[in-house]
Amino acid sequence: MQTLLQKPSLWLIIIIVVLPQLSETIYTPSLPDIAHTLRTSENMVEFTLTIYLLGFAVGILLWGNLSDRIGRRPTLLIGLLIYLLGCVGCWYSTNITMLMISRFIQAFGGGTGSVLGQAIARDSFTSHERGKVFSTVTMAISCAPALGPIIGGFTDQYFGWEAVFVVLFGLGCYVTSHVFLSLPETNTVLKKTNATDLIKGAGTVLTDKRVLSFGFLVGTANGIIFSLYSEAPFYLIEMLGITPSQYGMLYFIVGISFVIGAWLSRYLIVRGHSQELLLSIGNGVVFLGATLWAIFALLGYINIQYEIFSVLLTLGFIVIQSFGIALILPNALSHALENYSHMAGTAASLFGFYYYILVSLMTFGMGFFHNGTVIPMPLYFTGLSLSMCFVQYVGLRRSENQTAVNAV
Asked: Are residues 38 and 137 in the same domain?
């Protein structure tokens, strides 16, 4: 059995994991300003979130495998330096092409934090300690995307959109210096893995109907979240007239709905309720929130003439969907790879790559349908939530029923 030597601090693991999560959303209140400054379309600016998620997906696929070969610490430092390079590129971007390339670089490097923060925790703590560590890390991951727009909204309003990337560069330097000075190497048994192992794993994991179905639920639920981050700045700032700082503060309420949903999910699981029931409730709540939102938008109740009412109504529908998504994600993530404990690292990388590709495609769809009105977002979310209900029934319920029949 491997001896657990020097352990990294829990705080260091948290900031490693949170940095890329914060970077995903911190600049979203700046999207309208970026469109104006770089003289590009709102659709193209929304695609910068798509390209970030694509770079993140590629990074997730690479960094875990590399850290098994050369160690967690050097891999993390390489990734963080690439992340800082991307931040500088975003900071000095003078056109949308440069910004997109820089966002991809930033996400590709930042993906090390998401992958290796959790790997370092697995390396460093016993199974008994790990439960507390992962629950704390998960809470931080849940709060970071909601915290991003709050910080970004105030930064953009008072210092301009470029300052958002200055903030990220400063945070990146802080994390990099602490990793360099304080992080011990936690992977004491390096593995000689290669691309063939990854290809073989992909042939197994990504042809499993159950894994694909859970991945679709995770990808689509996150797709709704990140489509919201890309479209909502235009929806609430440009169309309904609130300020970037006000926009950012709305996510404090959204974050609370996530926390309540996650707490309820844990409570119901402890009380013996099934994962299938919680997924059904979550999907139903998301569909209800999106459908009601679409109806009110189509009937004309959401417009600039009723600014306060429209903002509160929109916020209410977002909170309903966020609550439902908080029921979906932990249950889908916890059960997706339960049959792959013999290849947990490879399976997790492939699964993360798969659902982040879905998320990037769905944010691309939101940007494609953007037309400067309040109609596309709620209609798009209604369609996505309906697809989740369908996949749960066809991809999960039927396959699990068939498994039960075969077992008999």
From this structure: yes
